């Protein structure tokens, strides 16, 4: 059996690179085993559970290439790639397992009309191989350590599939025997649709742990109605730190009622197009198409022109949409930075033209 170091040394050598030609060594080793790749992170699906009517939970065993390059902190996301009808599609998913686990656990909510979530919900099976490319996100627990410093009273709030990153944090703190108090509030449509309900029910009442559920389509939960002062008082008044992930309305309600709030969102923000678009020409050089800039991000303008550029998060985090700008200037809607140089890579989901732009697309 090759160790990762030996595999890298032999398969990563210049000679092997030369012999395997333009396709690279991974195109050959994957014929032996699909997860046996040197350059590409991949994972095998080793378990599939459908514990609610609108979600699927996958346990992934990442290959050595992924684990050697990445460690995933509780609350971060991974970029997962699947091939559907011959095209690769990448989406971000936040593992729900505790930090340091050898396997990744993804719980994926089923979205009506959603491409990748539907595919995995319907087709995921044991033995399936998916791509894993990159880890990111700063929605993570504050530094903890033997000194015991850091927040002691922590409130987690989630809605729907937004439970995953906070579940990872909860599991991590419990594994670390967090000495303070934890409250966990989860909103779902109904008890049947509440992910991790049984595990959370078993945790409720452990010393220092309080779990409350609210159901938006029934009054059967511990909490009735939407998050507000009452729910906060029932869960944990004046927490030291709050971590929330869920629909925008839930995140905003938590921000309104709490201090020291850390937020994560799975949905792209709505970018207001500028009142006065630059009016420049946007040239998608590889396709021989050019359009007048209408002020929207380049990804949307390309899609309106009939192109189908690869994309994932559509909010500037996964880098799947990155394309080479060969001329012109663009402004990044998140950072505000204007990139003016030729031959720069830009994330087209969050870049708007500033005058004429040529893009390799
Ligand atoms: C940091 C981060 C972490 C994430 N973690 C998780 C996680 O742990 N679990 C999870 O479930 N999700 C997570 N997501 C969301 C996930 O990345 C995907 O966005 C989600 O699975 C939907 O992808 P999709 O390919 O199914 O939808 P897409 O095909 O990309 O469509 C996007 C949205 O448009 C809607 N849509 C698409 N086509 C149509 C249509 N024809 N008519 C109407 N509506 C349509 C879909 O319902 C969907 O909501 C995360 C996102 C981010 C940014
Ligand atoms: S689609 Fe994720 S960065 Fe653009």
Automatic annotation (TrEMBL):
**Superkingdom as given in the UniProt entry:** Bacteria
Cofactor(s) demanded: FAD
First-tier enzyme category under EC:
oxidoreductase
Task: Please indicate if the UniProt record lists Iron-sulfur as a keyword.
Answer: yes
According to UniProt, the name of this protein is: NADPH oxidoreductase
Q: Does the keyword Chaperone apply?
A: no
Ordered alphabetically, the record's keywords are: 2Fe-2S, FAD, Flavoprotein, Iron, Iron-sulfur, Metal-binding, Oxidoreductase
Q: What are the FAD-binding FR-type domain coordinates in residue numbering? A: 38-142
Q: Any idea of its EC number?
A: 1.-.-.-
What GO molecular function annotations does the UniProt record carry, in alphabetical order? 2 iron, 2 sulfur cluster binding; metal ion binding; oxidoreductase activity
Signal sequence residues = none
InterPro entries in the record, alphabetically? 2Fe-2S_ferredoxin-like_sf, 2Fe-2S_ferredoxin-type, Beta-grasp_dom_sf, Cbr1-like_FAD-bd_dom, FAD-bd_FR_type, FNR_nucleotide-bd, MRET, OxRdtase_FAD/NAD-bd
């Amino acid at each position: 059996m090759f160790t990762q170091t030996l595999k890298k040394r032999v398969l990563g050598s210049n000679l092997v690179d030369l012999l395997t030609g333009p396709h690279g060594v991974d195109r050959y080793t994957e014929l032996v085993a699909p997860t046996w790749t040197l350059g590409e992170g991949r994972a095998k699906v080793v378990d599939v559970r459908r514990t609610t009517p609108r979600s699927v939970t996958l346990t992934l065993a990442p290959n050595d290439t992924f684990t050697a390059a990445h460690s995933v902190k509780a609350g971060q996301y991974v970029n997962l790639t699947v091939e559907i009808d011959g095209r690769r599609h990448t989406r971000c998913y936040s593992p729900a397992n505790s930090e340091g686990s050898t396997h990744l656990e993804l719980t994926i909510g089923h979205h009506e009309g959603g491409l990748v979530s539907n595919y995995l919900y319907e087709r995921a099976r044991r033995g399936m191989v998916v791509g894993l490319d990159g880890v990111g996100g700063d929605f993570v627990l504050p530094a903890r350590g033997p000194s015991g410093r850091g927040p002691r009273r922590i409130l987690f709030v989630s809605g729907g599939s937004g439970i995953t990153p906070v579940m990872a944090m909860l599991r991590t703190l419990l594994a670390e025997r967090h000495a303070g108090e934890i409250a966990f509030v989860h909103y779902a449509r109904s008890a049947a649709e509440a992910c991790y309900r049984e595990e959370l029910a078993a945790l409720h009442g452990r010393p220092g742990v309080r779990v409350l559920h609210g159901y938006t389509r029934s009054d059967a939960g511990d909490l009735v109605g939407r998050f507000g002062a009452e729910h906060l008082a029932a869960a944990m008044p004046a927490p030291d730190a709050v971590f929330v992930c869920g629909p925008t309305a839930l995140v905003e309600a938590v921000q309104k009622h709490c201090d020291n709030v850390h937020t994560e969102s799975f949905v792209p923000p709505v970018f207001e197009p500028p009142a006065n678009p630059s009016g420049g020409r946007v040239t998608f050089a590889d396709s021989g198409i050019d359009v007048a800039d209408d002020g929207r991000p380049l990804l949307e303008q390309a899609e309106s022109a009939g192109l189908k550029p690869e994309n994932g998060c559509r909010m500037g985090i996964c880098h799947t949409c990155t394309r080479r700008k060969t001329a012109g200037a663009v402004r990044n809607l998140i950072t505000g930075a204007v990139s003016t140089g030729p031959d720069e890579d830009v994330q087209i989901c969050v870049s708007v033209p500033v005058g004429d732009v040529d893009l390799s697309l």
